[in-house]
Amino acid sequence: MAYQRSQQEVEQALGEHSYLRAAGGFSMQHTLVSIYSSSTVVATPDTVVRGRFAASDDDFAGEQLLLNYRNDNAKLGFQLGIGRFYEPDAILTSCHADLEEDLREAIALPKPKPLKAGLTAVVTQRRSARGFTGKPVELTDLSAILFHCQGTSGELPYGNPAAPHGIIKLRNAPSGGGLYPISLFVHAFAVNGLPPATYEYLPYAHAVAKVADGTGAEVLRSPDLEMTQSGFAVTFAYNLYHNSRKYGDSGVVFGLIETGAILQNLHLARTALGLIGCDQGSYDKTAIERQLGLDGHTRHVVHVTVVGQGE
Ligand SMILES: Cc1cc2nc3c(=O)[nH]c(=O)nc-3n(C[C@H](O)[C@H](O)[C@H](O)COP(=O)(O)O)c2cc1C
After folding, report:
1. Percent residues over pLDDT 70 in the chain
2. Distance from the CA of 256 to the center of ligand 1, in angstroms?
3. Residue ranges of the domains in the chain?
4. What tens digit of pLDDT does each residue of 127-158 get?
5. CA-to-CA distance for 42 and 175, rounded, in angstroms?
6. Measured in Å, how far apart are the chain's first and last C-alpha atoms?
7. Is 279 a pocket residue for ligand 1 (Cβ < 6 Å)?
8. Which of 222, 230, 279, 285 for a ligand 1 pocket mutation test, highest count of atoms within 8 Å of Cβ?
9. Which residue's C-alpha comes closest to atom 9 of ligand 1?
10. Which atom of ligand 1 is nearest to the CA of 127?
11. Where does the pLDDT of residue 37 fall: very low under 50, low under 70, confident under 90, or very high at 90 and above?
12. At 154, phi and psi to the nearest 5?
């Protein structure tokens, strides 16, 4: 369709009807550009718009993220996104997050044992080590590690404290808005009492559910260590929409922060149990996502770590 008016005429019309500029800006930035248009972010930052028209292949994806993510509470989009999560249905969804766990084939883990090591001792003794001996890890140890990562240990009543409408179950690692967008997958190579396979950890039930018959050793192969000599590897997966509907682009940042918090709990727990471990930065994201059945669009592998017995 050809333009009917000159730029000068358009400017004049916008000057007389300033609301048109706001409506047009909203439509351009929000409806057409933002993937969160149905949810959170109202105004897409200029840098995103520029990036759309002048994308460069050698940009760091992280640069784009850092230029665009923001958690400024004063921003209207952020407020709208957060506001929706205070509505009763949203809160009750959080209260019933345990119903998302499919328990039909779940394997209950043993009651997690409390770890008595001193905090300063485990923080300072935690080291990365790669010399796995192939000796199996006990299921009670796996249970304790997963519990320290993501197990539930607190409750937040919703509504009247005397007669709450629901209770949000809180986990051992913090999470923005209590939304818990990180899932843990266990690739069990040698765990006494758990057949070798790949499992998802179900924090509310403190159980694991098999997601693949194989362990995924072939896709997890590492140049730095002998994966199959370890006890198990843990893959961290981030569910983008789980918290981005509320927090916009800050959701990704929160997800990565939460990965770090869970990861540190894992390392401290395995140190307390006398197990060695090492993080893996050079994993094949797509191959692991395929092995786990994650689409790589809404759910992303964001980290891999390995735990086992040392000398
Ligand atoms: C995100 C992340 C990725 C890592 N990737 C690898 C890796 O691919 N291979 C490896 O051998 N160590 C890896 N490491 C371990 C670091 O090399 C190690 O933490 C660092 O050298 C400090 O030593 P420390 O953990 O013993 O204190 C990684 C650590 C982190 C936090």
Report:
1. 83
2. 16
3. 7-68, 103-308
4. 999 999 999 999 999 999 999 999 999 999 88
5. 24
6. 74
7. yes
8. 279
9. 280
10. 26
11. very low
12. -155, 165
Please indicate whether residue 98, judged by its CB atom, sits closer than 6 Å to ligand 1.
no
What class is the 103-308 domain?
alpha beta
Cα(121) to centroid of ligand 1, in Å? 20
Average pLDDT over residues 259-276: 98
Cα–Cα distance between 140 and 111 in angstroms, integer?
A: 8
Instruction: Kindly state if the Cβ of 260 falls inside 6 Å of ligand 1.
Output: no
Ligand 1 midpoint to CA 128 (Å): 6
Candidates 90, 82, 81; CA nearest to 41 is: 81
- 128, amino acid identity: S
280 lines ligand 1 (CB under 6 A): yes
Beta bridge partners of 166: 158
Banded pLDDT at 93 (limits 50, 70, 90): confident
- In the chain, where do the E strands start and end? 107-108, 137-138, 152-158, 166-171, 182-188, 191-192, 197-202, 207-212, 232-239, 276-280, 299-308
Of 164, 176, 146, 183, which Cα lies nearest the Cα of 96?
164
pLDDT-derived band at 65, boundaries 50, 70, 90: confident
* pLDDT number for residue 50: 52
Q: What is the pLDDT of residue 31?
A: 43
Tokens of 291: 């092995």
Cα separation of 30 and 44, whole Å?
6
Cβ-contact 85, 242 below 8 angstroms: no
